[in-house]
Amino acid sequence: RLLSANFIQPIDYPQWVSNVVPVTKATGKIRICTDFRDLNLACPKDDFPLPNIDQLVDLTAGHEMLSLMDGFSGYNQILIAPEDQHKTSFITP
Question: Which residue in 14, 49, 50, 62 has its CB near the most CB atoms, within 10 A?
Answer without folding.
Answer: 14
